[in-house]
Amino acid sequence: MKEGNSNVTLLLIDQQVSFHPGGSLAIPTANEDAKRLSEFLKNATDENGKSRIHNIVATMDSHHKMHIAHPSFWVDGSSGKNHPAPFTLISSADIKNRKWVPRSDLNDMEKYVDESIFGSVPTYEGGSFDLAGYCEEYAKRLEDGGRFQLCIWPEHCIIGSPGHCLVPEILSAVDSWVEASAKSVTWIHKGQNLLTEMYSAIQAEVPVDASTSLNHNLIGLLRSSDKLIVCGQALSHCVNFTVRDIVKHCPIDERGKISILTDCTSAVPGFDAAADEFLKDMKAEGVSLVNSSAFKW
């Protein structure tokens, strides 16, 4: 990130309907977060009335209905009929022992995995793609990464659905910024690959193809900023892992230019400890934790 204050980027993470009250994966305080963020964006002007924000990067969680982290992908191994409930954790041992298995009518799944990136994929005798073997290996890599297990989420941010849209309060503020600045938003879609979860906008925890590998262009764009302001949903997950990856790929002397607006983001209910640990870790890395009303330009 450059020295000075002439290139300020606002990183909006997953400000989508699914994560707000009434959505399928609602965070109870997300509407209040959005209101504060909307006010912050509208009031971020200099003495001449020009926006102090020069770039907006907005990430969008973008899933298909049939996805490895959604219930309909899985059935129990005994009857082959029952799907796991949302928030079920599926371990590699569960898959190996057939407690949960990918449904048998899933076809052409191998096209979502690039072996030059993931490595060799499990196959049956004869060479056909072993989806259950892949899922076991995928879950094991998640576990070995130390961040989380495979979690089954309520279907959310389904491409083409109302839940995928930017929440109206933020969309209005962003549209006003576009009109006033004559600039366009940089949109980053993540999560389209059916066979890996992508909390971080920078890369999937388990990259399986080019679209889920390290996004060098995005890292370069964010690092080119004098100040990088981060907010969005959810603090415990996509904000957490996106910022961790940004910090990982920034030199130590650049990390102080990153600010998290702590009153414009909230944890998924039940994951407050993960959010608290994240903020503690980022403070130790030199990232600023600040209330939106107290942000210093």
Describe what is shown at a glance:
By secondary structure, the protein is of the alpha/beta class.
Give the SSE layout.
Blueprint: E1 8-13, H1 30-43, E2 55-61, E3 74-76, E4 89-90, H2 92-96, E5 100-102, H3 115-118, H4 131-145, E6 150-151, H5 168-181, E7 186-190, H6 216-223, E8 227-232, H7 238-248, E9 258-261, H8 272-284, E10 288-290
Parallel strand pairs: 1-2, 1-8, 2-7, 8-9, 9-10
Antiparallel strand pairs: 3-5, 4-6
Helix pairs in contact: 1-5, 7-8
| Main sheet overview | 6 strands, parallel
Counting DSSP H or I runs of 4 or more residues, the number of helices is: 8
Write out the strand line-up for the largest beta sheet, numbering strands in chain order.
Answer: 7-2-1-8-9-10
What's the overall average pLDDT, rounded?
Answer: 96
Assign a percent range to the helix content: 25-40%
Q: What is the rounded Rg? A: 20 Å
Q: Any idea what the shape is? A: elongated
Structural class: alpha/beta
Helix-strand pattern: EHEEEHEHHEHEHEHEHE
Portion of residues in beta strands equals: 5-15%
Given as residue ranges, the uncertain stretches (5+ residues, pLDDT < 50) are none
Number of strands: 10
N-to-C span: 16 Å
